[in-house]
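Any chance you could type out a protein's amino acid sequence plus the matching backbone structure tokens because I've never seen that pairing?

——
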Amino acid sequence: RAGVQDEGSQLVVKAATSAGFPAGPWLDLCAGPGGKSALLRGLAPGLLVSAELQPHRAELVGRALRAYRQAGADGRAHQVIVADGRVPAWQARAFSLVLADVPCTGLGSLRRRPESRWRRDPGGLGQLVELQAGLLAAAIESTGPGGVVAYVTCSPHRAETVDVVAGARGVQLLDAPALLPEVPAAASRLNRRCIQLWPHIHGTDAMFCALLRRDR
């Protein structure tokens, strides 16, 4: 079975899984519709938990993962759950890698969805940023000592990217662009330790990624 996915989404998953962290289960905190969960499932050495707030989107995640058996001979498995990432349905510090691909304005995908610019109102940005910050805090709380949180948005907007990351506590910001040496000019101009991809430079959506290591 094959699917189509923007290269930017694949690159941020590659960076996240290359960061180096202890062995343990992985979590996709905002998993719908499932493209990144499918990538993670192919790379995860053990359990992958995919959490999604909306039941219909959780079903899409399940469909994306059907190519994998629930558990292989090596003991790898995946689990899809309907849950609010801000109110974790799992124990704190349970995961070694957490992907937080948070809801955002989607301004980074305008080349594919030009109509989305008419669906956004600047007045709603504050509420969205509050949601993003809450999800990042929950992602950090869900990560064990030495584990990594990948904070990802499909938006280059400063308020949704480096400003949210600047508010994170109990973590160290890793040099994410160094994990993609084959990608030129991948560093954000707003913070050189974060990845910012661009349609006109990389031929991808304008994906942002910050990698945060949980303090021991």
Notes: Residues 7-214 form a domain with the Rossmann fold fold (CATH 3.40.50.150).
